Amino acid sequence: MDVADLTPGRARERFRAGERAPTAGWCRGWTQANLIAVPKELAYELLLFAHRNARACPVLDVGEPGSVRTRLFGGDLRTDLPAYRVYRNGRPVADVDQVVEDWRPDLVPFLIGCSFTFERALLAEGVPVRHLEQGTNVPMYRTNRPCEPSGSLSGPLVVSMRPVPEALVATAVEVSGRYPMVHGAPVHVGDPAELGIADLGWPDFGDPAEVRPGEVPLFWACGVTPQAAIMASGVEFAIGHLPGHMAIMDVRDDDYRVGP
Amino acid sequence: MDVADLTPGRARERFRAGERAPTAGWCRGWTQANLIAVPKELAYELLLFAHRNARACPVLDVGEPGSVRTRLFGGDLRTDLPAYRVYRNGRPVADVDQVVEDWRPDLVPFLIGCSFTFERALLAEGVPVRHLEQGTNVPMYRTNRPCEPSGSLSGPLVVSMRPVPEALVATAVEVSGRYPMVHGAPVHVGDPAELGIADLGWPDFGDPAEVRPGEVPLFWACGVTPQAAIMASGVEFAIGHLPGHMAIMDVRDDDYRVGP
């Protein structure tokens, strides 16, 4: 069965059983989300950070402290994502398939919108998605744009990149713009140097995507931004998803579409 | 000088000097906001409450703990609103002109969107605003609709009411809907009993507004909702504005308009 045809429940079963894969293209029609779980004493600063940097950090759902599911995610947050990244003192210390042992009772899980959610709409309008064609993870980059800080939290905006044929740039901007809760329109179109990205071939997260002649790189705010802030701010403990390996939610992508 | 023509700075000077008046109609073209300041240990629950009940509690700005101004409010939050309501253990204990003595260093001020902000747009489209005609405060009501709780915080949705001639109901809905960050379109049109409001003549906050033959009552989510939650939840200490006596912000109403 094509992974695009799986329900969120079936996909989560496979991840729980140990399958590890970027989730772009999985569960067509369902919303995907970034996970960032922090100790309760940091929850306010993180929620305010998300509010102040809403383009990168649109909050879809927040769980109770210690809970392993949320209203919009019916699986088990400790096992049902394909892979996780554990942070201690701002450093990634482990990329793992589950975090049952690491999930502390004071952890507050936040689910943040992900641009994978509007890729079905891009394809439907004829906009190709290179990392889907390549079968790779989307490329993500730290930028030179600082987020607005919140308390002890600060860090750079992270972006995802999709190369788009010049004639389809306007379409890609318009279509993604209809999904403001999953990052909406690109934050930048064109020259990566404008964002302080020296080389598209070396993403900070995920895999490189080939940019072909006549294509323009489009950059979308990315829900890995909170993880970049965890790192930049030396946070004592946090658990995120492994970038590109998302939580597949029990809510349709159409539920986040604005307009026709 | 007509109060509609005042700048936010001038209006705040007058409030600081002791003038007390509902702010509907003041400072035409500028955004107005609800104030709710809570101790830092409650800030997370309140911010999450606002997120979960965003129609009633759109967060425009959040100050640092103990701060008396925010990015979008250049005045002094302790003196520059026309009046305040102080809460202890969930009870309003004082309606006062300033809160200099009460402003604790652990208080986090939240500024929440206010529907006064779109009244200029209603007038511009020919929709009359009764409380402006009457020179009174807008009527506000507790409803039978519970908010989604957050931690220890729960309470009813509060609404403001404006009677609108039947022929202009669609216009009023459309125009206010262009301002989603200041409550947007009404949550209810028509029969107040649907919201559990027994008698429009006895608002829970503000003054009654005459509903004339051929007019329909329109109900908008109201930024007094956090104060209703403070009361319903027995919060130890909080400071709000006196309902209808808003913070006048240094940001234009047009900045919150979506579309043409």
Describe this entry's structure for a reader:
The structure is a homodimer of 260-residue chains. Chain A is an alpha+beta fold. Chain A has two domains: 3-115 and 229-256, PSTPO5379-like (3-Layer(aba) Sandwich); 127-221, PSTPO5379-like fold. In chain A, 19% of the residues lie in helices and 27% in strands. In chain A, strands 1, 2, 3, 4, 5, 10 and 11 form a seven-stranded antiparallel β-sheet that branches. Chain A has a four-stranded antiparallel β-sheet with strand order 6-7-9-8, covered by helices on one side. Chain A is globular and about 50 Å long. The mean pLDDT of chain A is 97. The interface between A and B is small, with 9 and 9 residues.
